[in-house]
Amino acid sequence: MIAALLLSFGVIFVAELGDKSQLMAMTYALRYRWWVVLLAITVATTAVHAVSVFFGHFLGMSLPTDLMSVLAGLAMLVFGLWTIYGDRLDDEEQNRATRVGASVFLAVMSAFFLAELGDKTMLATITLATDHDWLGVWIGSTVGMVAADALAIGVGVLLGKHLPERVIAIGAAVLFFGFAVWLTVTGLTGASTPMIAATVTAIVVIIGVGTFLIHRDRRLRADSDTEAAVPERSLGGHEG
């Protein structure tokens, strides 16, 4: 249980760094009392990870341990690439963070609960619960996410600005890749040739697709920035 708790804490803490929900936590903390935001996040996280552990534990019981380890390694590879790709608050989520109704606690709790459904931290918790003590995973993942969001809240309250997202994202991605290598090698130890071949093929496909999406996103951002800068220069020249 202790090993599962520590592993889950580390994985989820890293997964939450630079994540969309961490940005939401910081946004809320800039407007409302930090302890209300943190309490709401804790309740929402406890509920989401309870659901994740339930599904991961009972689904994982019927699957081979080595296969689950390989799948976990592939999942960590995806999470690492996902982290490099980056999370951003879209317009709807930004509005949700800036326009809260009468009950701040319920608004923040529901927002975080919905934001975490299908997020990479939920998927990571499900993955961990398939092959580790469910109680340890539940406690560790919950504490890990709350700790990461508390860090964002603290920085938001003290500095009034976002964390350096790119630096954090790169560091988190490196740790994810480390988890990916460790879990994949553990799962492939003594594995059959077809399983090794299938795993290598999956790794190549994941890296290829991830690299393509990251490159496309960078290009689209650059084009968008260029288009936004052109009217500003034109306006400045007209006024001059």
UniProtKB/TrEMBL annotation:
It is found in: Membrane. GO terms for molecular function: metal ion transmembrane transporter activity. It is a multi-pass membrane protein. Keywords: Membrane, Transmembrane, Transmembrane helix. Pfam families: GDT1. GO terms for cellular component: membrane. InterPro entries: GDT1-like (IPR001727). The chain crosses the membrane at residues 34-55, 67-85, 97-115, 135-160, 167-189, 195-214. PANTHER family: TRANSMEMBRANE PROTEIN 165, TRANSMEMBRANE PROTEIN HTP-1 RELATED. Belongs to the GDT1 family. This is GDT1 family protein. It comes from Gordonia alkanivorans CGMCC 6845.
